[in-house]
Fold these 2 entries.
Entry 1:
Amino acid sequence: MMDINAVVEALRQLYPNQDIKPRTVPVADTFINLPPDCVHAATALLMDRFDVYHLSTITGQDTDHGIELLYHFWDGRGLTLRTRLPRAERAKGEPGEAPVIATLTDLIPGAAFYEREIWEMLGVDFQGHPNLSLFLLPEDWDDAPPLLAQTPGAAVSEDEADCSSPNDNQNEKLEDQESKQ
Amino acid sequence: MTRMTIPIGPQHPALKEPLSFLLTVEGEYVIDSSLRLGYVHRGLERLCQERTYVQNVHVLERVCGICSHVHSTAYCQGVEALTELEIPPRALYLRTLLCELERIHSHMLWLGVLAELIGFTTIFMYTWRDREIVLDIMEEFSGGRVAHAVNLVGGVRVDVEQEHARSILTRLDDLAQQVDTFLDMIQHERTFQARTRNVGHLSVEQVHRYCVVGPVARASGVDVDMRRDAPYAAYDQLDFQVITAQQGDVWARTMVRSLETIESLHICRQLLQNLPSGDLTVRAPRRVPAGEVVSRAEAPRGEVIYYIRSDGSDKPARIKIRTPTLTTLITLPDQLRGVNTADVPTVLAGVDLCIACADR
Amino acid sequence: MSISGNAIELLSAKVVSALFKLLVFPGFGFLFVCALAFQWIDRQVAARLQGRVGPPWFQPLADLIKLMAKEDVLPSEANEAICAALPIVSLAAVLTAGLYVPIGAHSVAPFEGDLIVTLFLLSIPTLAYFLAGWVSVSVFSVVGGNRSLLQYFSYEVPFLMALSGPAILHGSWSISHIAESQAIWTVLVQPLGFLLALIGLIGKLKRSPFDIPKAKSEIGAGPLTEFSGRKLMMWQLTMHTSTVVGIFLLVNMFLGGDGNGVTALTSFAFSVKALGILLLLSVSSVLYARLRIDQLANLGWQVLAPLALLQLLVTTWIGTG
């Protein structure tokens, strides 16, 4: 089981200029924000000094702050390193530069599939990755990366998009059951 | 020696779900392999962003057929943590009961599939026949053999009465006897052992490097199980053992999964005998407060992790799912190198692939 | 005039009788009916042992009829002429082999040395099977064909040696003669030979646990992957008939054939022995997992062949001693 305080201390020593503020997140996790170029060294620190080698997954999401990558580690309790990358600027239909970050596959080969999926779904370039090719999408996929916020989702009709009525009834039914009991 | 490229999949008798493997074979030995997923990719992560939290319970159950309940459990737990709901103990016990029943059914299905792939059709017929006992129990309990729709955000939808609980216990005892028979059979059957020992080996170092989870990791000696390490539902009140083995081959994985089935039967008995009384659900708000949560559960194939972010509306901003099959798929090129072509289906079966889970 | 009239009557009677023996009993017609019946019994026994219900009695016939109605396609690179000829040649070879194996007290055309001819004819389907895989060009077929040839070398030598045992013991190479001259059943004198012949038969018929060339989970259907329609029907008929001829061969060589008794009892005894061997084959097909080809080769050369040699040596020693 890793000692979160010791990890935070070590990270603060590694990056004295960064404001390392751990945040507890349910269910048993701690989130720490880091700039993109610090992630690789922080991972190496976790592996060498704290014997943390299990990377559960890497989450990528498109938020208002840009493209966020979350590296979820586990060693008896969870530790997630969060980093933000600027979104590729697309002006007048031309693709801008893709957001870039160093790959973790040289430290943790198991990260290969997770990074490949994020490249595919969000367009993030992992420098040094051995095989950034299509993973889940079909070979003839030529649209924008699907998980980017500006990529439109599947068209749904007005009725399908209206999600209010069936669930209201369901919650009301639950209320009725509880009030009867 | 001529080199041949043998395609395995997307359609192949050895595969239960579509997956594409290209094996480079020299004589009778595999030199290299490459893998292509995505044949069952349905874009569920993106779909979840356009459905409400309540609708997503049903969407996420359909990520996979064999481990459907554990997906909805991990999701509901996550949302309940975001809304800070206190789930009634009876609901937690029933959730756990279905999780364990699902584990039993998944392992028995897997044993049958492995036996069929090595040509031992008799064990396939027997295990799938006895698996019907579990499927019947699940159907009586929830109304469905495969997609149970038991979880709600806030608890569970169905209940178990005293009589029903007693009948389930009797049938689980019958099943325990059958599982003991299979265990005995495979431990003494020389042809079965000849086909599974020293096949598809993974060392502890490889398990660490590829971040493998589940019975495959435990069969190589790595002691990790989310039910004990990150107790969820009712697991913190239960007494069970985590099964590990040392050899790291398909035989070790067979033993781990078989003994885990017996352990699960033991857990089911504890749950049914100590079922607390009380409500089944608590009222859940439609809009989930803004925040994020990382929820982990132990599916039959290993650790499943959900990351959920809410922006305060009634639809999630992001749901990220990582299923255990992805961690074992990445080890396959290593496992297949140097393996006899006749053992390829055995290796594929040994890691218990669930491609629907991996593709989402 | 009357003499030639009698001669013509005699000749036509003989012709009719010969045609009857060839086409009806104990020839092709009887073999065909037995093939379907044995196939059904085999599937029923395997099903019951696995806790299933099993197919209805007409299933093997229905399968053959269904295949006749299916489309007959081949890959464009496969040699059509050879692919059409191979199943016909195999079926012809097996049916011809059946002519020399006595059924009850009847055999169509026995002669001294017909054991060797029968064994030779029974090998033709195996070689045709390998050729079928080779000529079909697809990867699964070629790999299956290679395996079938490797398997052939592993079991054929012990099989032939085991079958030579009764021949040496009774001093004849005619199956009918060996069947008739068994005062005590050969199996009681050469139990090891019987066991080896049985194992060899399982390999020859490519039944589980030696169904390696058509290992469904690994290489599709092996050499026959690309065959369909009428050609596949003939291949299946060949396999079923080989089973029948193989079983009858074993009954005659090791279990005393027709028993030299009264006619009605004769047929009954023969049927019981044949069904007994069929039962042994069916049960052994569900008891074990499939072996790998290298494991089979090891078994064949390190265990079966030496044992067969031992049996032959003992037989020769007893014979000369």
Note: Chain A has one domain: 4-180.
Entry 2:
Amino acid sequence: MRRVYLDNNATTPLAAEVFEAMRPFYLEDYGNASSIHWYGQRAKAAMETAREQVARLINCRPSEVVFTSGGTEADNAALVGMEAARAESRHVVTTAIEHHAVLHTAKALEKRGVRVTYVRVGLSGVVDPADVERAVRPETVLISIMHANNELGTIQPLEEIGRVARDRDIYFHTDAVQSVGKIPVDVEKLGVDLLSLSAHKLYGPKGVGALFVRKGTILRPLLYGGHHERDRRPGTENVPGIVGLGKAAELAREHMAEDTTRMSALRDRLEQGILRSVPLVTVNGDPQRRLPNTTSLAFDYIEGEGFVIAMDLRGVACSTGAACSSGSLEPSHVLAAMGKTPEQARSSIRFSLGRFTTAEDIDQTLEIVPAVAEQLRAVSPHYRKAGARD
Amino acid sequence: MTTVVAMSGGVDSSTAAALLVESNSATTPLPDSAGESHPRVVGLTMQLWNQRRLPRLLGLEEGTATPGHASGRCCSLDDTHDARRVADHLGIPYYVVNFEKPFEEGVVRPFVERYLAGETPIPCSLCNTEIKFAKLIETALQLGAERVATGHYARLRRDEETGRYRLLAGVDRAKDQSYFLFGLTQEQLARSVFPLGEMTKEEVRAAARARNLPVAEKPESQEICFVPSRSYREFIEAYLAEQGQALAEPPGEIVSTDGRVLGEHQGLHHFTIGQRKGLGIAVGAPLYVIEIDRTRNRAVVGPDAELFRRRFVARDVNWIRPVAQGESFEAHVKIRNKHVPAPARVAAAFRPPELDGRLKAAATGAEAFVEFVQPQRAITPGQAAVFYAGDEVLGGGWIARVL
């Protein structure tokens, strides 16, 4: 069976060039980057190259890049670190559609007495900067709003929100895990002070990411240990992973324009194809303001979980939403926050394309989606009832 | 033909999956017309209950866990890790499907309601009809599969003349689980496969070992899957507390069968029919709970001899072999999992269902009057009564009233 991978928002395959770049740091240049000797220097130099590569991708200084174990750690470091460094200003503004790495961290902060405002979004899945402005209080210390939503692909108006933050001297964090590598991300244009990114969403390895920390931003570290990463993040650095992240960042810069054109054309072909061949399907979220690779579709009268399994049995990998929420009872908090009913949320499917997705992949998917949709609807008593009414 | 196999991570369902894979690969036809070769066996684990919901019960489990004896229950707590390892070993696709919501609505809540109504319910049978052979078949159809296989020790026969399915006890009578399957409809039976029905437990374990299944040596679980402490009362108190309700049961009288007041009880939910311990009364001869009288909030106790009764009514009866209303026949009737079926006369009846908190689906309106030849000990409302003719399950229902 020929398999098709359309779940690139969950994770991407490792680019071959990235793998090759990492290889020597497992086998030959295996030094500890903190060591004085030649081995350590080789590792350190490679790490600093990676720091430059990442900095170039998001337009910051290399010294503002702190390597972490991934996006979740970067988000935690930003939110918890910001709170821990301040005794008084104890209010945070975020949204109801953040990734759980931000949302659950915010919930944990609430238990420690921090007040959090969760700005709502409408059916477009896009935050209104005016709502953020209204949510801000004199004691607000941090605004944390994701750049692109992982489930919908919708892109948030960070530039406007950045202006709100800057005018009021509030720190601004963004979880850019889904956008970095897919669309241009420039920390200056966006006006952010903190930005989380993750290697495995841009054809890099799992288990490594970074937090951009604007110079002068005071954060208390999550962990205590050695003086790594300018005292921001202790622990022996994951040198091969960091090298991989750097290479992935470099490749992302090279490929971005071409990837965007190709992926959005394929994504539109997939979306239009499904809308034409399957009745009762709607696109979730703003169809314009979104990542070039993502489509989230609501298939009425279909249980998303069954759809994903049935598709997988026919060789196509897609998802109901965030992979981190799979198997959980609750329908997507993102779709719920947009005002979708639990039924609509449970019937939503995300297809996310990648650099290696081909036209053949899309055609193969389009061939099986109508049959799978019909197979699931045939079992739905609600669908049969609705059909009888027509 | 694609078959979904329900995998709990235990040795039984794992072996069932292995046998199914072998029998299917022996008969697998060429790829279909589209040139696609779809998987023939798909492993599914049903996630039914989140044990972390009631952490108090988990703490209790450590202190009260008892070493296992021969199987007492229908199935064990789902173990997705083991099930996944087995599926990987067999090279079949494997998924976890979340049925927590239908399980709570269709099994846990009715269980709690019946318990509070003074019964001693057995949730496994309800789980089979409401979840395993309803939701799971539905999921199987969604995935393009036609049948569902489980590791139950039971056999199916198709009557070639009538086209109806007959349900038979498993060959291993000590392991037989047909008692838990009485509620299956013909439609459900037609889509069911029981690969272990012809085998003994020893043969199953040997088959698991021969195939190097990673769970071949796994001991059996004795628990009702969502009641880790094996204490119904603890579970119900914790569950109600989670729902923001207190288990408010007023104290009442403990009386003898001839009406003498012997003491006071602290709520009827502390009792089950046949219980001896914890009555809090000291009389010469040992006393047992004979009856739980909800309407008068009394527990009726008496000597062991008074536990033996002959007649009861079963409600929500499902007839696997068709029976006409008013028909009566001889059968062997089993009134709890460990009960040896005893000879009785069974009369089929019908009464319009009163939907009193019971599931509409289960409220068939079919009733049965059962009269044992010899009195049986502790006929307990809430337990399942299953009617056998030799190996064959004719039907069954829920014990409603002891007459």
Note: Residues 19 and 313 of chain A are 29 Å apart (CA to CA).
